[in-house]
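Raw record, unedited: von Willebrand factor A domain-containing protein 5A-like
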Amino acid sequence: MAFHYISKLVLVSFEHEGGVLCSLSSNDSLDIEPQQPPRDPLLQLVSLQKASGCWELDPALAAAVGKTSEEVENTKPASENKEVWATILALIWLHGFKMDAQEEWELLAMKAVSWLRAQNAPCVAECVEAGNTLLGCKVQKDALGI
């Protein structure tokens, strides 16, 4: 019995009947990275939500909403904490760009709204206004459920 598998990076050989049981070799001179398909921004955003219902303000969130970290940080209202700002941005982005997939995200949005209400954030209206400006949306605070 013999099994041989050859790829650009590895040669694997299994033989039986007193021969080689296993041999591996790697060609280190090839530097090939498998191409990853571009990630869906909605899936990125969903994967970033914390168990509590909030999002953290970090480069991954900025990328998911199509902005740089600097843009997201620099437009945050000074009096609001980063998690409240990030969570409001995520909700605005969902309502502004992914209404066609609302069935997929409405439960996580409800969890985010519950988290926001529990924070008693003082500047929600200001955050919604700043988030709309940053993302180019016109989502009303009431539409977000907060």
